[in-house]
Amino acid sequence: MNFKEELMSLTILIDEYLKDYFNNLKIEVPEAKLVESMNYSIMAGGKRIRPVLTLAVAKMMSADLSEVMPFAAAIEMIHTYSLIHDDLPAMDNDDYRRGKLTNHKVFGEAMSILAGDALLNEAFNLLLKTSAKAGEKMEQSVKASCVIASAAGKDGMIAGQVIDMESEGMQISEITLKTMHRKKTGALIKASIVAPAVFIGLSEDEIKALSEYAENIGIAFQIKDDILDVESTSEELGKPVGSDARNQKTTYVSLYGLDGAKKMLQEVTQKAVKVLDVFGGKAWFLKEIAYFIAERRN
């Protein structure tokens, strides 16, 4: 199976799981408008990079994909909630996401806030239920859930968003920029890789290698985002371009120039790929994901 086929296969597995999950949620939860709003964004057609990474780690280690699927789904719920809230007028004030109207443009600001809140809570509801049913793997399941919780919270994704929000309209240092993106973008990507490794019970050295890989593709993801905001079009991205410059945000492009950012992207991608050599040939798909992130057009 080649990379595109494997990527599509894993993406379909995730989409089917999420579709079934939210169809069941519609039956269980009477607040139809709330679930509709949640479902609108979770099924909006994202790349599913984070849950794909979760399944890819499990598959690389010949683990049961069904056992790690709840972690993958929970991470995608958390990611989606963050996008809903990021798009709000109080944050980035975006009208489009993935080529569709943003949640608050369809359901109103109040409902989109509640939908984001509900997705976050549903993620932890799923993680807790999974851990409660994990039997002899309960401890690993709880530890994996803690990895995700830490990445999503005040020391991770939310901390990064706070730095981003407070840095608008001002020039920030390289250290602050890297800290912001390590938390805002990188933390959840890293959790997508480390959480399944913890659940499966990989060695400290293996987890260390995967952590380094995750940190580098997290940086690569953000550098590429910054490049696309300059080079791409609204049609390709499915959202407005040039917003970083309009909002006077410090980016890798504004700090290092377009050519400098592209060089840095190549360097961190190669670092990510190299560290996976410890896993031999079975890490081929994770290596290809690193290149996919660096070469994506949206």
Task: Characterize the largest beta sheet: strand count, sense, and whether it forms a barrel.
Answer: 2 strands, antiparallel
Q: Structural class per helix/strand content? A: mainly alpha
Low-confidence runs of at least 5 consecutive residues: none
Helix and strand element order: HHHHEEHHHHHHHHHHH
CATH topology: Farnesyl Diphosphate Synthase
Write the CATH homologous superfamily. Answer: Farnesyl Diphosphate Synthase
Mean pLDDT: 92
Percentage of residues in strands: under 5%
Query: What's the total count of β strands?
Result: 2
CATH domain class: Mainly Alpha
Our Rg estimate from Cα atoms comes to 18 Å
Task: Output the number of helix runs.
Answer: 15
What is the 3D shape? globular
In CATH, the architecture is: Orthogonal Bundle
Distance between the termini: 24 Å
Helix content: over 70%
Instruction: List the strand order in the largest sheet.
Output: 1-2
What is the count of structural domains? 1
